[in-house]
Specification:
The protein contains 4 helices and 7 strands; from the N terminus they run H-E-E-E-E-H-H-E-H-E-E. The chain has 2 domains: 117 residues, 2-Layer Sandwich (Nonspecific Lipid-transfer Protein, Chain A), CATH 3.30.1050; 40 residues, no CATH class. The chain has 185 residues and is of the alpha+beta class. Helix 1 crosses helix 4. A 5-stranded mixed β-sheet has the order 3-2-1-4-5. A two-stranded antiparallel ribbon has the order 6-7.
């Protein structure tokens, strides 16, 4: 469902530009379905512009159709619907009109505005119940080192296991460790 201007106002109040590179002031006309609103950034501050008449001027405009917005807000988020920049990359750059240079500088801030509006319109995800407390004593997880030979080199790999049945191999993401899978173990 396309947000209302009030939804956009509420959502944009939480948008921070901290951490983004400083840039010259810019303005953009955003269109989500039939909703049109302006965004201005000057001196590191974001503001909404109510005047979106034919006489208003903008550095660029960015549009998302009502159908695209519905897909953009769906859970789980699908490829191409992660940000304004992803929409441009996967669904075409014709949604950006005006100065491409200003668009490129403002894309990070625009992503934050669009994400805030999307998050504001979503229902809060259901909260999982707290896990039951672990029983006293030794836990079921065993940690060991496995020595293997890979391409004529001996390697030690830390392995954790628990339970019985068909083995399941879980590889953690970069920068993480096996704690990522404690809930499974």
């Amino acid at each position: 469902m396309v947000p209302s201007l009030e939804d956009v106002r509420d959502a944009s109040a939480a948008v921070t530009l901290a951490g983004l590179p400083a840039c010259h002031p810019w303005s953009a006309l955003l269109e989500i379905g039939d909703l049109r609103f302006g965004v201005r950034v000057a001196d590191g501050e974001l503001s909404l512009a109510d005047d979106v008449s034919i006489n208003s001027s903008w550095d660029f405009s960015f549009s998302i159709s009502a159908t695209e917005w519905s897909e953009f807000c769906a859970l789980p988020v699908t490829r191409g619907n992660t940000s304004a920049q992803a929409l441009v990359a996967t669904r075409g750059a014709n949604r950006v009109r005006g100065s491409r240079e200003v668009w490129a500088r403002a894309a990070g801030a625009l992503d934050r505005v669009i994400e805030a509006v999307r998050a504001h319109g979503r229902a809060a995800p259901p909260v999982r119940p707290a896990p039951r407390p672990a029983p006293l004593g030794l836990g079921p997880i065993e940690g060991r080192y496995l020595t293997v030979e890979i391409e004529n080199e001996v390697r030690r790999i830390y392995v954790e296991s628990a339970g019985a049945g068909v083995p399941l191999l879980c590889l953690h993401t970069a920068g993480a460790d096996s704690r990522q899978f404690r809930h499974l173990l």
